[in-house]
UniProtKB/TrEMBL annotation:
Transmembrane segments: none annotated. Residues 361-767 form the Outer membrane protein beta-barrel domain. Pfam families: CarboxypepD_reg (PF13620), OMP_b-brl_3 (PF14905). The keyword Transferase does not apply. This is Outer membrane beta-barrel protein. Keywords: Cell outer membrane, Membrane. The keyword rRNA-binding does not apply. It is found in: Cell outer membrane. Coiled coil: none annotated. It comes from Pedobacter agri. It comes from the Bacteria. GO terms for cellular component: cell outer membrane.
Length: 784
């Protein structure tokens, strides 16, 4: 049969009728899971897909920020081979409760001038894992050994969940992400130029969008996974949608065993002496965590909607470690030895409630939104340190325990209004926000008195740190789009009031300061396959309790650390130029980014000689180390030679130049290199394969942080009409993940190496269940 069939149409916004360029249009033969072809709308929202065989088809249209639209029952015959679907309207993802009757594979990665979107459901690797695991495979995102995620080329990154800040409202964001189940996540947005609606904090935002479960009827999944390292997790998600309401919830449990080894070698240079420290350590830890989420969405009337969600997670951990420190003379002869064993027990919990009310204020599409977020969390960490010294054949011992009790409370209020203007071509937004945070960090340090056989409080190290922060913000933005042009401009103003004090009597009242954050984004779509974009914004990195708190951490008495209460905010001017080229089987989006930061906040290390001894102590704190000018070239590409094979990769080359008045040792430049490559393949018999490779080598103000190649290989098999899937994953096939740090100052050189048991073989099972209620018919599609 001749392949002369054509499906065409125009994609527009439901409210305002504006055309949507670069929307993804996927064409499926009825009863199949993979698209026969995909295309993108041109600058005026039109698409035309040709050379289709006669048959029954359906299409799915998706675009970032809008709910996917599925059109079923498209029949192409030899006599009627041209099917014009007319205007197809996409509705805002926030408002839409439209039915999605078929689960279709989205493109794994979607690109925009302001960032990248990673669709979690399109990844085999993402199934049955956690948010931390997923983030490791997101373009432009790097996850360190402690589970902290950052955007490539950005000195500070914030983590949001459903558009709400989560990082500054929990004692440890890594604990939350490490137990948050991936099956509850819809997508991850990497916002390199966050719009004015978002807080000015951080040079970029990682926004984790949770699944809302807006399918008609009862849907969900249950999964379990386990690895040969002794780790395992279980999770379940379920949702139910009625006529005008939806309920969704999830629960997850994680258990993990960690093992690691470390080695550091420090050269200490002083006018009258030179000596060396050679330290080796080993550690083992066990952790377990649980997470529970519940959400309710209700259309009170056709013009009113309320959404309420809650999240609770609980974590517990235990650890033990040991390290040996050899003191070496200038001739590399050992003259002393220190042995230390550490044990630790920790627990933390976090509870957050979000409530959002939305009202359509007029028939033109104007809406008013009110949001409230309340958060409370706490953590308790008890650690014991037993140390034995053997100087010149004489042995002595010390015993210390640290009890760190931390509490956080936070409240955020938002008021937002948006409205189409100028015949619904453009859109304006206004908003106010208030954010309150309180942190209470109570550290009790006790030393054991061997004569009285009792622990005695160490008043020099024990302290309570109290931190209060109030931020009042207002913003306005304007969105213009016409004839392939898109312009977003906005400004946000924030008034910050911070006060903190210590139980020892020091009080710090930071004078309230006003910050202004302009934001501009330009986009031009042309010739149906090209996109040129440019952005500019100012961002802020505020010092908070983790960097301000002067409490001394003397776990290792020769390597102590503490915060700096005299830190000032750091401001960053950042500019991006991006170019996107899209073909039917490929995409390529190079990006050039430049940023200039004043008063960069980074960890700064000094080594001092303890008076009256030949012992050198390393003191690590934070400081406004100076300015950092960074130029980054970021290349992101995707190639799909067939509808069953896909490859994607991203590469970052970042030139950083530090200039400091604090210390001439910080005047340095260097190049950071990061890269990721991903490959996926659909195989016969409902089998799929996916792999990812990652590498990072980063420069810092005092040296370099060099990581190893990390990898993930996964295979999946579907059973029982795609309801049950078995997945096997091999992490870090090339060896355990390791990290090497080079650090240099005026009188020291440090090289440290660490490795952890990340090489793992994981099995997982996941079962999806669906009970569809009577279908709600889609609105009729009008032909032009």
């Amino acid at each position: 049969m001749a392949e002369k069939g054509t499906i065409s149409g125009k994609v527009v916004e439901e409210v305002g009728g504006l055309s949507i360029p670069s929307a993804i249009v996927a064409v499926y033969i009825d009863g199949t899971e993979q698209p026969v072809t995909t295309s993108a709308t041109d600058e005026d929202g039109f698409f035309s897909i040709k050379n289709l065989k006669p048959g029954n088809y359906r299409i799915k249209i998706s675009f970032v920020g809008y709910a996917p639209l599925i059109v079923n029952g498209i029949i192409i015959t030899e006599k009627d081979s041209d099917r014009n679907l007319g205007a197809l309207k996409l509705s805002s993802e926030q408002n839409s409760l439209q039915e999605v009757t078929i689960t279709v594979q989205k493109p794994a990665i979607e690109f925009g001038a302001d960032g990248v979107t990673y669709n979690v459901g399109s990844s085999v690797l993402a199934e049955g894992s956690t948010a931390t695991d997923v983030l490791k495979n997101v373009p432009m995102v790097q996850v360190d050994i402690d589970g902290n995620a950052t955007i490539a080329g950005k000195k500070s990154t914030r983590v949001f969940i459903d558009g709400k800040p989560s990082d500054y409202m929990t004692s440890n964001i890594a604990d939350l992400l490490n137990v948050l189940p991936s099956d509850a996540i819809e997508k991850i947005e990497v916002l390199t130029n966050p719009p004015a609606k978002y807080s000015g904090d951080g040079e970029g935002i990682i926004n984790i969008v949770m699944k809302k479960g807006f399918k008609v009827g009862f849907n969900g999944n249950v999964g379990i996974a386990g690895g040969i390292q002794g780790n395992g997790n279980a999770n379940t998600n379920a949702s139910y949608r009625g006529k005008n309401y939806a309920i969704n919830g999830s629960a997850a449990y994680r258990y993990n065993v960690g093992r690691g080894e470390s080695n550091s070698y420090r050269e200490n240079f002083f006018p009258d002496t030179t000596f060396y420290y050679d330290q080796k350590g080993a550690s083992k830890s066990k952790s377990r965590g649980a997470n529970f989420r519940l959400g309710f969405d209700w259309d009170i009337t056709p013009k009113q909607n309320i959404r309420v969600s809650t999240n609770y997670n609980d974590n517990k951990s235990s650890s033990n470690s040991s390290n040996d420190l050899r003191y070496l003379s200038e001739q590399l002869i050992q003259n002393r030895l220190r042995n230390q064993t550490n044990t630790g027990d920790g627990k933390s919990n976090n509870f957050v409630v979000n409530a959002d009310y939305k009202l359509q204020t007029d028939t033109s599409g104007g809406s008013l939104s009110i949001g409230l977020t309340f958060n409370t969390n706490g953590s308790l960490d008890l650690r014991s340190f037993s140390t034995t010294y053997q100087p010149l054949g004489v042995s002595r011992a010390t015993l210390q325990q640290n009890n760190n009790d931390i509490g956080n409370n936070g409240l955020t209020l938002n008021l937002d209004y948006d409205k189409p203007v100028f015949k619904k071509r453009d859109r304006v937004e206004f908003g106010l926000a208030y954010n309150y945070r309180k942190n209470d960090n109570d550290l009790l340090v006790e030393n054991f008195n061997f004569q009285t056989q009792q622990f005695v409080t160490n008043n020099r190290l024990s302290n309570q740190f109290l931190y209060n922060e109030n931020i009042l913000a207002g913003y306005a933005s304007y969105n213009y789009r016409n004839a392939g042009w898109g312009v977003k401009t906005g400004v946000r103003t924030e008034l910050t009031d911070v006060a903190f004090d210590l139980s020892t009597g020091e009080n710090y009242n930071v004078k309230p300061y006003l910050s202004v954050f302009p934001n501009l984004s330009l986009n031009r779509f042309f010739r149906k396959r090209y996109n040129l974009g440019a952005t500019y914004s100012i961002r802020i990195n505020r010092p908070r309790e983790n960097t301000l708190n002067p409490q001394v951490n003397n776990v290792d008495t020769l390597n102590i650390s503490y915060g700096n209460p005299n830190l000032s905010p750091s401001y960053t001017h950042q500019m991006d130029i991006s170019f996107g080229a899209f073909g039917q089987k490929w995409s390529f989006t190079p990006r050039l980014s430049y940023s200039s930061s004043q008063g960069v906040i980074e960890r700064f290390r000094t080594v001092i000689l303890i008076p009256g001894s030949t012992t050198a102590r390393s003191e690590s704190t934070f400081d406004n180390v100076g300015t950092n000018n960074s130029l980054a070239l970021i290349l992101i590409g995707n190639y799909r030679p067939t509808n069953k094979i896909s490859a994607n990769g991203n590469f970052s080359l970042i030139q950083s130049k530090y200039t400091s008045k604090l210390n001439s040792a910080l005047n340095r430049d260097g190049i950071s290199v990061r890269g990721t490559f991903g490959f996926s393949m659909q195989l016969p018999q409902k089998t799929a394969f996916e792999s990812n490779l990652n590498y990072a080598n980063n420069v810092s103000a005092q040296g370099r942080n060099k990581g190893s190649v990390t990898s993930s290989f996964s295979a999946r098999k579907l059973f029982f009409s795609n309801r049950l899937n078995l997945r096997v994953t091999l992490n870090d096939i090339f060896g355990n993940r390791n990290n090497t740090v080079y650090n240099e100052g005026e009188n020291f050189r440090l090289q440290s190496f660490s490795t952890n048991n990340t090489q793992n073989f994981i099995f997982s099972l996941n079962y999806r269940f669906t009970k569809i209620a009577k279908k709600i018919p889609p609105p009729p599609v009008s032909k032009p």
